[in-house]
């Protein structure tokens, strides 16, 4: 399988952390990462049941560290109403589509789940490679956290190890920095900058660039920059 | 959607019943049936959250009533080791396969989930049309009840209404009775009877017979019986 970690961002209820550990192990996942979680006590241990090891081996990381360490980051969000088609949460992919997309990745993947009451902040979502939304009923779309984790784990279980060598987070960061500089050079307006970068991150994020492709994109931008600087 | 009911058979923990109601409603299902459940109190209501209506409208039925009332009954079981290939629990289908199978049904479907500690009894399984097993890790295959329900609901959500007119439970019962009588007439040995009937129930159960097909099978048996009785 690709190395998939489940990341809970500021979970509020220890019972949900325990249930998450359990359902992860049910589908063969053992790498749990916690970002600033609630205190974990007996209730978490009880609900983890025979997945106490997953709970106890959970790593603590910051959002910054997650985007620095993982090759591919998937952020989950609740279903958004059609009227809120912001580039922050669109386009989104179903768990089955995510399975297709990540199936051939050879690299580390993090799946982010937000707080029980309001999910992930835009700042936590912005750098994700792609957004995943579990299709739910409009009448009552709010899944319990551990049920959402369970459905992702069910879909992503038993993936064969991919062979697709992803560019790492450092390479991708340097590409995005280059693009930002490039946008400066073509006088891209400041007020549009954030949304444009978000869109570029989403498009390039989900295309799963290889190291070679990243370097080709750098080359194309450098070539364009040369012509911009040397125009008569 | 086909009319799908979720049936919990003797659930032991009210929290799981509440969580079940919630995850059902998350995927658009509202018909919960309880067979001899534990007492339901505050914990069930709390975990049902905004699906309190599903919990409160839950019907109480017996296993007998379920097999009498529903056109198609799916029994869920934990994954069985390969060494226990009994006809009782084999062959089994994954939730995705079940989706394919039930997709075109026009009729009422019940999905049975057993007790948290030991699942469904053989007597409760025996008459099911088919067996569904969620593929899990061998290391820790025991899913929490509500997580198992959630995965089935996720797979079966948003099915279009089928157009396939199933023979009802009364017609199917009369077919199985005819087959039993027929087996008597051909001196089928008693000690094999139970397993043979189980196999026949499974095969005919999952083929989703129409009323017309049932009557053709009756006709074929009657014709054979006539020849058995009128042989020289």
Automatic annotation (TrEMBL), chains A, B:
Annotated protein name in UniProt: RNA methyltransferase, TrmH family, group 1
GO cellular component, one term: cytosol
Pfam families: SpoU_methylase
Domain tRNA/rRNA methyltransferase SpoU type: 4-154
Family: Belongs to the class IV-like SAM-binding methyltransferase superfamily. RNA methyltransferase TrmH family.
Protein keywords: Methyltransferase, S-adenosyl-L-methionine, Transferase
A molecular function (GO) term: RNA methyltransferase activity
Keyword Secreted listed: no
Organism the protein comes from: Methanoculleus thermophilus
GO terms under biological process: tRNA nucleoside ribose methylation
Entry keyword annotation includes Transferase: yes
